[in-house]
Structures are given as structure tokens and as C-alpha cells.
Design goal:
With 163 residues, the chain is mostly beta strands. The protein contains 2 helices and 10 strands.
């Protein structure tokens, strides 16, 4: 099987640009995902979140962070994973992401390692998945025993595409 070129991606999300960058890995429902480290502001312990009536199903609510109000998304719901408690509740964290001048929290089951994938190892998301206009997975990279799905933060947070 040959890798698809970035210009001929099999999904709506573009393949991650071939750059040497670090990614923060985390787990959700036993699956591994990663966000570009350049877009990670900080990682916080899970704490009180205020619900927002009428919000999208994947929005847990808002929290205060040093004078700013930050929306916090449920990573499981946003990525279409089963809504069940984390295997180790003490490991649950909120990753504060920044994109286009906005802060968005993403609740994850556990934080993993920093990964530094070789640009040639990044492949497009698998074919045959349900096509979504807001597909947040932009690429995958093999790791020992499986793979890590690389996330496009703007798509994950449903921010308008720059253009």
C-alpha cells in the first residue's frame, strides 16, 4: 500500500504538513491522540466546570482560568467515543489548547508522552471512515503496538478555517 500524497488526502481533513514538530499524546477511551505542542498552553487537573444550558452535547461547560472564561469540551464525545468513566479518574486532565487567539479546554482520560514523528511516517486517516466536514483527525503515525491519531486543533474546536 502506498501512502497518499498530502494533496490527495482520502478524508476532508488535510494530511498534517510534513514539519518537524512535537506533539503531546493523550488517551481517550483506550485510543491514543496527539495535539501539536505549539498549540498546548497547559495541562490542568480536572476541576469544577459550570454547565452551559443549551450547549452542544460535547461541550461540558466553562471554567475560569486566571480571569478568562474557557469552554471545556469532552474529548470522548467530540471524537465519537463511548461515554464512560476514565479507567483511572485521578489521571483525568484538561488540556488547554489555543488556536486563532482562543483558549479551549479538552478533557482527556490521561496524558501521555511527547512524540516527535518523522514527517515521512505520518499517513492520512484511514479510508472507509464516515466522512465528516469537521473531521479533527488530520493524520496518523504508527507507534509501538498501534498508532496515534494527530489532531487538527482548529477543526477539533470547530473554528472557522483561515483563508
Amino acid at each position: 500500500m502506498s501512502a497518499a500524497s498530502p494533496s490527495r488526502s482520502r478524508s476532508h481533513a488535510p494530511v498534517v504538513e510534513a514539519t518537524a514538530q512535537s506533539w503531546l499524546a493523550f488517551r481517550l477511551a483506550g485510543q491514543h491522540y496527539a495535539a501539536p505542542l505549539a498549540q498546548v498552553g497547559e495541562v490542568l487537573r480536572d476541576s469544577e466546570i459550570t454547565a452551559v444550558p443549551g450547549a452542544a452535547p460535547d461541550l461540558l461547560g466553562i471554567r475560569h482560568l486566571r480571569g478568562r472564561i474557557v469552554p471545556v469540551m469532552d474529548g470522548r464525545r467530540r471524537l465519537g467515543l463511548p461515554a464512560q468513566p476514565a479507567a483511572e479518574p485521578a489521571g483525568v486532565r484538561v488540556v488547554i489548547l489555543h488556536a486563532d487567539g482562543q483558549l479551549i479546554g479538552l478533557r482527556v482520560d490521561a496524558i501521555g508522552d511527547l512524540i516527535h514523528p518523522d514527517a515521512q511516517a505520518i499517513e492520512p486517516p484511514p479510508a472507509g471512515r464516515a466522512a465528516r466536514a469537521d473531521e479533527p483527525v488530520s493524520g496518523i503515525v504508527p507507534v509501538a503496538g498501534g498508532f496515534v491519531a494527530l489532531l487538527d486543533i482548529a477543526r477539533l474546536c470547530r473554528l472557522p478555517e483561515a483563508g
